[in-house]
DNA sequence: CGATCACGG
DNA sequence: ACGCCGTGATCG
């Protein structure tokens, strides 16, 4: 059935979302400029100390001290040609083609080298990682204050919109943000030593609300499995009150199916809660590993990729055989996943595209009709991902418009500052009916009719860091 | 201006 | 060419 573009436009509520986006851009957000400046000074001091340590390290090893640590070429020459360290066969995204002379020095590659190094070399590699982390924070602390407009607020630019006006947008209907890129502000506590999100503060008399859709793309897949195959397993796994899905998967995969042992007994002997407990780091690592496999599979990754992206304790890739066993076990644990993969492949070979939730059509003809098996595989990966990524964008877009058009919320003073794919950041006056506002937000964010229920967590605080972790 | 690296989802 | 979608700083 063919649907007119006007009908698609209406179904997706694009005009409603656009209006809410424009309002978000106008709202802007308050930046703690003093915090940025203080932290930047602190970070630059640490940068200088780290640089000095790196230079001393070079001199001690008998090399000239003026190398540019931001240059992969110069660092590669130093580590591999001058110091004789073996180049890493792995990096964050997988294999390194050493036969072709390819070299990688991202953090994953440096970690591999580090684990095969003398203590003196480790010192230098650790300092290099440190330097990159510090500079990563300085990037934001230094530039963010420059975006404060005459009204005292920062107005990041959002999409989607045409390329012509230089605004941001995506083929999946997700938003993007630029000038500044507020969607990329560090959040990982292990990486973000300067807590840049603390600079995103509520204006005077306001508080910040951070509302997050829980495992949005997994819920959408659960919905699709019910609709396509009447398979309720995944929907049940993400239902309210169900245990954490990645813990359940780790227990099933490594315990029930692979019979691995940790802390002296088979993994399936542990209660599912232990997989998130700091007292059981071995179980936490299994949970983290299966979480990576889960999301990788959702986006079309295979055992070939997991063979290098999954590492043992010494950073050695686990290899394709071990990866295949883990993937097979996860398929056994959640059969809807391989079933969905096969369905999508059949579908794109028949229809040369894949639909999204809002009636969007992802055209894959160029990939599926080329006769090239590699391009067909590429199409398969895109097609697996598209319903989830586009579905998430549709759901969050509708919630965004519903919240914006809600007169009661507007009168309470609720104003959207940011949208980050599955998360909203609002400011609201401290005098507002906060419990009522949160309840209404929760209602709008869970109203999309899916067969697997949406769930929302809402945090509150004086800044993005606090509110996001509350 | 393409490649590398890093950040988010 | 074996993980999807993005923005941006920096190097050569």
Structure explained in plain terms:
- The chain contains 18 helices and 14 strands.
- It is α+β, with helices and mostly antiparallel strands and 470 residues long.
Task: Give a summary of the structure in a few sentences.
By secondary structure, the chain is of the alpha+beta class. It contains 18 helices and 14 strands. The strands form six sheets. The chain has a four-stranded antiparallel β-sheet with strand order 12-13-7-14. Strands 1-6 form a two-stranded antiparallel ribbon.
Distance between the amino and carboxyl termini:
47 Å
> Mean pLDDT score, rounded?
91
Count of runs of 4 or more consecutive helical residues: 18
Enumerate the strands of the largest sheet in spatial order, edge to edge or round the barrel.
12-13-7-14
Which consecutive residue ranges, at least 5 long each, have pLDDT under 50?
Answer: none
Percentage beta strand: 5-15%
Major pleated sheet: 4 strands, antiparallel
């Amino acid at each position: 059935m063919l649907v007119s573009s006007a009908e698609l436009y209406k179904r997706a509520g694009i005009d409603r979302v656009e209006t809410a986006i424009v309002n978000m851009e106008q709202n802007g957000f308050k930046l703690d400029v003093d915090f940025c400046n203080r932290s930047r000074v602190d970070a630059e001091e640490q940068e200088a100390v780290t640089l000095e340590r790196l230079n001393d390290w070079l001199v001690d090893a008998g090399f000239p001290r003026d190398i540019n640590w931001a240059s992969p070429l110069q660092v590669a020459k130093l580590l591999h040609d001058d110091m004789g360290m073996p180049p890493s066969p792995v990096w964050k995204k997988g294999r390194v083609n050493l036969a072709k002379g390819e070299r990688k020095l991202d953090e994953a590659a440096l970690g591999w080298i580090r684990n095969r190094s003398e203590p003196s070399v480790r010192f230098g590699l650790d300092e290099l990682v440190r330097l990159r982390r510090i500079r990563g924070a300085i990037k934001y602390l230094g530039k963010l204050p420059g975006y404060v407009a005459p009204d005292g607020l920062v107005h990041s630019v959002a999409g989607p919109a045409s390329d012509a006006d230089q605004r941001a947008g995506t083929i999946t209907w997700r938003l993007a943000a630029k000038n500044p890129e507020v969607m990329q502000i560090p959040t990982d506590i292990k990486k973000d030593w300067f807590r840049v999100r603390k600079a995103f503060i509520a204006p005077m008399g306001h508080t910040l609300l951070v509302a997050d859709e829980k495992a949005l793309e997994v819920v959408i897949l659960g919905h699709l499995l019910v609709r396509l195959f009447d398979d309720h397993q995944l929907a049940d796994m993400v239902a309210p009150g169900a245990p954490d899905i990645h813990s359940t998967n780790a227990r099933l995969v490594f315990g029930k199916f692979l019979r691995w042992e940790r802390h002296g007994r088979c993994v399936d002997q542990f209660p599912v809660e232990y997989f998130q407990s700091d007292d059981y780091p071995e179980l936490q690592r299994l949970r983290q590993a299966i979480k990576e496999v889960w999301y990788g599979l959702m986006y079309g990754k295979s055992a070939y990729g997991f063979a290098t992206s999954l590492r043992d304790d010494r950073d050695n890739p686990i290899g394709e055989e071990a990866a295949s066993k883990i993937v097979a076990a996860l398929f056994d644990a959640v059969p809807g996943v391989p079933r969905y993969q096969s369905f999508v492949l059949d579908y794109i070979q028949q229809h040369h595209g894949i639909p999204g939730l809002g009636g969007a059509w992802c055209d894959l003809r160029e990939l599926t009709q080329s006769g090239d098996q590699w391009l067909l595989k590429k199409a398969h990966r895109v097609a697996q991902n598209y319903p989830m990524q586009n579905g998430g964008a549709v759901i969050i877009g509708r919630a965004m418009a519903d919240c914006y058009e809600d007169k009661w919320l507007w009168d309470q003073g609720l104003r959207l500052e940011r949208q980050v794919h599955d998360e909203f950041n609002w400011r609201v006056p401290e005098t507002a009916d906060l419990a009522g506002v949160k309840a209404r937000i929760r209602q709008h964010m869970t109203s999309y009719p899916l067969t697997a229920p949406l769930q929302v967590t809402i945090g509150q605080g004086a800044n993005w860091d606090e509110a996001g972790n509350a």
